[in-house]
Amino acid sequence: MKTILMTGFDPFGGEAVNPALETVKALDGRVLGDTRICVLEVPTVRGKCVNRVVQAIGELDPFAVICVGQAGGRAEITPERVAINVDDFRIKDNEGNQPVDEPIDPNGPSAYFSTLPIKAMVEAMRSKGIPASVSNTAGTFVCNHLFYGLMRYLDVEGKGRIGGFVHIPYLPEQAVRFPGQPSMSLDCTVEGLFAALQAVLDNRTDLRVSGGREC
Amino acid sequence: MKTILMTGFDPFGGEAVNPALETVKALDGRVLGDTRICVLEVPTVRGKCVNRVVQAIGELDPFAVICVGQAGGRAEITPERVAINVDDFRIKDNEGNQPVDEPIDPNGPSAYFSTLPIKAMVEAMRSKGIPASVSNTAGTFVCNHLFYGLMRYLDVEGKGRIGGFVHIPYLPEQAVRFPGQPSMSLDCTVEGLFAALQAVLDNRTDLRVSGGREC
Amino acid sequence: MKTILMTGFDPFGGEAVNPALETVKALDGRVLGDTRICVLEVPTVRGKCVNRVVQAIGELDPFAVICVGQAGGRAEITPERVAINVDDFRIKDNEGNQPVDEPIDPNGPSAYFSTLPIKAMVEAMRSKGIPASVSNTAGTFVCNHLFYGLMRYLDVEGKGRIGGFVHIPYLPEQAVRFPGQPSMSLDCTVEGLFAALQAVLDNRTDLRVSGGREC
Amino acid sequence: MKTILMTGFDPFGGEAVNPALETVKALDGRVLGDTRICVLEVPTVRGKCVNRVVQAIGELDPFAVICVGQAGGRAEITPERVAINVDDFRIKDNEGNQPVDEPIDPNGPSAYFSTLPIKAMVEAMRSKGIPASVSNTAGTFVCNHLFYGLMRYLDVEGKGRIGGFVHIPYLPEQAVRFPGQPSMSLDCTVEGLFAALQAVLDNRTDLRVSGGREC
Prior knowledge:
Oligomer: homotetramer
GO molecular function (chains A, B, C, D): pyroglutamyl-peptidase activity
Subcellular location (chains A, B, C, D): Cytoplasm
Catalytic activity (chains A, B, C, D): Release of an N-terminal pyroglutamyl group from a polypeptide, the second amino acid generally not being Pro
Main location (chains A, B, C, D): cytoplasm
Function (chains A, B, C, D): Removes 5-oxoproline from various penultimate amino acid residues except L-proline.
């Protein structure tokens, strides 16, 4: 049986929960055909989050790794297109780090593109009635940091594993604190990510459909 | 046993579903203490929607009437504060009517305030983790029309019934068509409205908490 | 020569300027045909702001009164359709008042509609290239309070004067403090309100064009 | 005397004007100390826009190149942090091209970071009262294409020139067509970009202040 590794961050920024962690926990152990989902909680801390994922890859030997993070303010599930080689933290991470314009890996390339079929993932979620879009920025905080660190490891480690990052909205219970902000219920994020995983299994190459934006 | 009447509109504006109708259907027959929820589908047509509700009030003798409508673009469940005496339709209703700046009732007052405890309803929903806020405009389309028509009838008919209107967001399956727009799942709208109904039963007078806005 | 009275509030909510006051000051003394613009600064204080305007009406005998206020978060100049008879202050006014759900005038009607040709004002601004829309809510703070108080006075005083309220966006210098919030430069708000005034003079009855919204 | 080259696109997407072109035209020939601004109009066409800029660099020998583009929906002037090596056009460019997920340069790196002092540019604009923020995505259309193409050329050509891209909002006259969308007047965009240019001249290294986002 094959393994797909999903990760979710612990809560940050004063939140009591992280929708990413809640969502991947709900998917832990689920099976799609010959593939089982394994789930890992990672700390919202630069460096450490990458180390934790790299260690789990060594232990679990997944063929694909999908990291998931919270995107406060977004209304949709957004597979990320690209990770950039910079840390520029507007707020502190969970161990108080707040780097400004530091490279994540001084020896790494400027960016990595997701090797997941992000267009197919978006289509699969929409076909299930779950709002989804491609995102062209994963920000410059720990989410982008982990995304970049993961892709850097997969690039160097060289065994053909694929990987990427998906942002999901606040849970409704979080949005209560931010009147007017969009949210998505756990049932939706779980169903959406499950559909996206199925798309990963079904699409070795991505769909040729536009997911771009003018800005 | 007492009756509370809830109404939901049929789909309009090219939509295949109306979240209001789906939500109230899911609440039909539910019981809160000594009160049973009765549900009515109303057409998204000026005039007719009011007549249908008035007829149902006559048949069911509810002590409270809560009309529910779709608010595309909003991220929260929003009890409405006020209905205004004007029809100004940006789009046609389901029978092709498109009045511009016509009074709903030339003999009626300029506006009616909801007689539901809207602040208590918002608090009850938030305490359940459902995003909610007071809204100060129900628009100028059929939702406001029904809200005004209901309050006009309750004012004239004079038997102490209370009533009001609640707007709810798109369902996720609708928002798929409008990338970036917020939505709320049916489970949330149902749980939210149920909590709001409980607040109606529990609060004869409204809470003294601010639900206002600068604009 | 006829007089049109315009008012603008002093700054509130921690702001150093109020775009409404800056804009009307820039229009003070301007002449349109046989009409001169007179300008009044009013305090952002419930009650007092209305008294100040009523006093100025007595002194200046204007045929029209247009009150202007700041609408943080809006991107357009928005003539208001309706004032509602309630004070529900989310923040304190400039003398510390923070009423919750109190009627502005216990003997007044639930609402007043603007007696300005708001559709013609919007069209006139758009034809000059200034973003503008009808708004269906003036909020529940001092702006709505003054709008209601003005219309109440004009209704009771009974000499055929017309009046209403227009909200305008933050100035760019204010929006610097709120990343992502829209703004409009003083040149635009001045040109827009001047075009709107011309529309008031040119349109005794309003245009029959839709300015409504679904919600 | 030194030269700084600024470029603006011709209108696209059905627009009659492009705020970028109008803004740079207004800056043409302006002098800051020992530096003169030279301006170039570029076509909103993949490939051609880069060729035009490369040709102008050869003719004008600028020490810095700043390309400017329209960002419909944004409320601020946004210096871009990073260009990514992909064309994914949601709409056609001005010659009908609509590539999906094609690399801009198959031999180029995945991304280039701006070599302009983007934090200093933002600070300079804000200090003049002009809303500005760092952006972490230039989209995947012709703006990103030109940004990438410029940085690729500067990287290869190797003479120490610096370069980058700045997005600016709709002009008010454009936003009239999109009710609710933010805009910025030409006076503001001109003053803002002029302040940003001064920051380019004054800051050989960028400020160490956060301009990041969580997502």
